[in-house]
Amino acid sequence: MPADDAIVQLIQTGRAEEAFERLVPAYRRRVFGLAYSVLRDRGAAEDLAQEVFVKLWQALPRYDGRARLSTWIYAITRNAAVSALRGRRHSISMSDPAVFEEAENRSATTDFGPEDAALWRQVDRLPEKQRQAVILYYQDERPVDEVAEMMGLPVNTVKTHLHRARASLADALGAGKELS
Predict the structure, then answer these.
(1) Are residues 169 and 102 in the same domain?
(2) 0.70 exceeded by the pTM?
(3) Long-range contacts: 29-34, Cβ < 8 Å, 24+?
(4) Would 179 be classed as within a structural domain?
(5) Residue 81: domain span
(6) Per-residue pLDDT at 173
(7) Alpha carbon distance 101, 107 (integer Å)
């Protein structure tokens, strides 16, 4: 990403504040999307995204360029989301009318803005690793090797997650549509 190159150059020249001003709008949607894909709660994902940007601001001067900027941001976000998920102490009951209404409202639309809401509702139901692989590969248009690096998995494992996700989505959507 050309924007990433400019951000990295600003970091390397000690201009972290300018780098951060470019980083936030470039990654706001992706950080939220990843947080939401793990937490599956809009409010919690919004809070976590804010926390991630605070962490990024604090860590920015220590970014050493060993990993791609996007991979580094993804890892920080994923780790924060998994930690937040582990820290949850209570479960939400679908018998609560407010929770049920919110779930119904969300199932009708998606925050990602795809053309086919039914497809993305099914993506939301995939197992976590498959869901993350699909989002990174199809929504964020990352190559498989980069998805593998971001998820900390071998390339063939990511390919397997994508294959299984496509098969599950085709079954769930009926008509045996081929998703490529």
Answers:
(1) yes
(2) no
(3) 30/70, 30/73, 30/74, 30/140, 31/73, 31/77, 32/111, 33/111, 33/112, 33/135, 33/139, 34/74, 34/77, 34/78, 34/81, 34/132, 34/135
(4) no
(5) 1-90
(6) 80
(7) 10
